[in-house]
Design goal:
Blueprint (H helix, E strand, L loop, with lengths): L1 E5 L11 E2 H4 L3 H13 L6 E6 L3 E4 L3 E2 L8 H18 L6 E4 L2 H13 L5 E3 L4 H13 L11 H4 L3 E5 L4 E2 L20 E2 L11 E5 L26 H4 L7 E5 L15 H11 L3 E3 L11 H25 L3 E6 L4 H14 L3 E4 L7 H16 L6 E4 L8 H6 L4 E3 L2 H4 L9 E2 L5 E2 L2 E2 L6 H9 L4 H19 L5 H15 L3 H17 L8 H6 L5 E2 L1 H21 L11
Parallel strand pairs: 1-3, 1-6, 6-7, 8-11, 8-17, 11-12, 12-13, 13-14, 14-15, 15-16, 16-17, 20-21
Antiparallel strand pairs: 2-5, 3-4, 9-10, 18-19
Helix pairs in contact: 2-5, 3-4, 8-9, 9-10, 10-11, 15-16, 16-17
Bound molecules: zinc ion.
């Protein structure tokens, strides 16, 4: 069902942009939100709003506060864009229900007919009758609201994989380097589920994706069909039922702004309709480099938001609220922890740690753990954005329950000598064979007077040599010659290349890909240690993350140090 509503004069006046369905606050919108709160977002429901300011937009499209009423002149101005939007939305639903005032109806109805909508119901009558009709139409939709996982009950340490749109083509051919289709039409599988065995207990998704152009929650144009309904995250990531969806606000992305761009009620609403299991309160990081009064203001704001957020979360009852703890020092963190537990939080997430040294983190975690130990209830503690191999012993001792980290994943393609974690616990350097057709590499080649076509032959020789080495058909030194002959065309000086030779030799001689039983290593062979393109590099990251996950699950405290 495509539900079309008119905008309402009554609005919330939050300064941050709000989804249209939260911005408008007339009786129909209040009814709609009350329904969504009780029943979740029915999979068959799409909602559009005819805004006097923005034309026909999806109900989830964020809009700033404004003041404008629809009159016949404005309706005439908007006619062509409304028609274009309806053309984009035609296949969203098999029927359309129009619940709006007469001016909206007289604009939308001819446009719906012109755009070829066949089953359109115009709800007649005064506002009371419209509300009753809307209520009946919504009640008739099947809903799928589920109770959410509580990791507290799992009683073991959890690891979350932070998502930034990490998808792979499961049918990528590593020999021909062909994808399963052109961009946009490829098969895709999320990094967290690609392996067929878990590499984390769930995914951490940041609401701050709404400020970016990446991820499921990314910014869309206001009339994009996807802004008419939330896509269920579990489905989007193809996650198994027992995987946990954890949402946070991504406070690092707005640390430079005066106020969080996400309001408390918006965060709670989004956690609810997207089907999160856990949702973090709206925090504002009191970063150490800010002036003291500003840091204190942010601390107070974070606590006030946490109180308001807990009330909102209880209102929805569908996800478990996580109170985000900040502090200027360890004693402050302890105070905030006590306050949040007193408010009623059972799940806490310690934020702002990325800025801190291992020593500071150790102090903070000890202080928070001491407060937690004094409580009668079991309190779940998550550390946001850090893993810190050297502190694992302390984290285990302090009974830290949960982490999110992409560090082992991203190491796969960082410019360092630690790209592939062996099952022997040692890091290995991946072997770079850059893609010569990549625009940046083409530019480098041209700058050095080398025709990209000439580089292709050396590139292919390097790849062939590596595959032959893996098969036992070529010796290590001639393989290194081939790899470095191509490498020298791209960007390295001779000194760096001497280092590379010994790093690469170490990787090749150890043959770590032969010792790992994971699906990536079994199916890619030596390609898993070739540093080349997202398909190989992300799979290497998945392999690394699997090892990290297994170590955490086994309660292993001996994590490979960053430098051997
Ligand atoms: Zn592996």
């Amino acid at each position: 069902m495509l539900l079309l509503l008119g905008c309402s004069a009554r609005k919330r006046h939050d300064t941050q942009p709000l989804p249209a369905i939260l911005r408008y606050d007339g009786p129909l919108y209040q009814d709609l939100r009350a329904f969504l709160r009780r029943r979740g977002w029915p999979p068959a429901l799409r909602i559009g709003t005819f805004s006097a300011e923005y034309g026909l937009i999806g109900a989830l499209a964020p809009i700033p506060d404004y003041e404008r009423r629809l009159d016949s002149e404005r309706a005439a101005q908007l006619r062509s864009t409304v028609l274009a939007t309806l053309a984009r939305w035609r296949d969203l639903a098999d029927r359309t229900v129009l619940v709006a005032g007469s001016l909206y109806v007289s604009s939308l109805l001819p446009a719906l007919q012109a755009a070829g909508y066949s089953s359109v119901t115009v709800v007649p009558g005064a506002i009371g009758e419209k509300r009753a009709h809307l209520g009946r139409a919504l009640q008739a939709l099947p809903s799928v609201l589920q109770t959410r996982h509580d990791p507290v009950d799992m009683g073991r340490r959890t690891v979350f994989f932070p998502d930034w749109e990490d998808f792979l083509d499961p049918d990528f051919d590593f020999l021909t380097e062909h994808f399963s289709g052109p961009p946009g039409a490829r098969r895709r599988v999320h990094a967290a589920t690609a392996l067929g065995e878990p590499i984390s207990d769930g995914i951490l998704v940041s609401l701050a994706q709404r400020l970016t152009h990446k991820g499921l929650l990314k910014q869309l144009d206001r009339s994009d069909p996807r802004s008419t309904a939330p896509q269920q995250l579990r489905q989007y990531y193809q996650l198994p039922d027992d995987a946990i969806l954890f949402g946070d606000c991504g406070a690092f992305s707005y640390v430079e702004e005066e106020e969080p761009p996400i309001t408390v009620s918006e965060a709670a609403f989004l956690y609810h309709i997207y089907g999160f299991d856990l949702g973090a309160s709206v925090d504002h990081i009191p970063a150490p480099y800010l002036p003291l009064p500003e840091r204190q203001r942010r601390l107070q704001l974070t606590l006030a938001n946490a109180a308001a957020f807990l009330a909102e979360a209880r209102h929805y009852g569908s996800f478990h609220p996580v109170g985000v703890v900040h502090g200027l020092d360890a004693a402050d963190y302890a105070r905030s922890t006590a306050l949040l537990i007193e408010m009623g939080y059972r799940h806490l997430g310690i934020g702002g740690l990325v800025f801190r040294s291992d020593r500071e983190i150790a102090e903070i975690v000890r202080a928070v753990a001491a407060v937690r130990a004094s409580m009668r209830r079991r309190i779940w503690i998550h550390l946001f954005g850090i893993f810190r191999p050297k502190l694992q012993h302390l984290f285990e001792e302090s009974r830290v329950d949960s982490f999110d980290t992409a560090s082992y994943y991203r190491k796969a393609w960082l410019r360092s000598d630690q790209n592939y974690l062996g099952v022997d616990g040692r890091w290995y350097s991946a072997i770079r064979v850059p893609v010569s057709s990549d625009p940046r590499n083409r530019r480098k080649l041209l700058q050095r007077g080398i025709r990209p076509e000439d580089a292709v032959e050396l590139e292919q020789q390097a790849l062939r040599a590596l595959v032959a080495y893996a098969a036992g058909e070529q010796d290590v030194e001639s393989t290194l010659d081939a790899v470095l002959a191509y490498d020298s065309l791209i960007d390295r000086d001779d000194l760096a290349r001497r280092d590379l030779r010994s790093l690469y030799r170490r990787t090749l001689l150890a043959r770590p890909w032969e010792q790992c039983p994971c699906v990536v290593c079994r199916s890619l062979g030596i390609h898993v240690v070739i540093f080349r393109g997202g398909e190989r590099n992300r799979r290497r990251g998945i392999h690394n993350t699997r090892l990290l996950y297994r170590q955490v699950r086994n309660g292993d405290q001996c994590f490979p140090a960053d430098h051997e």
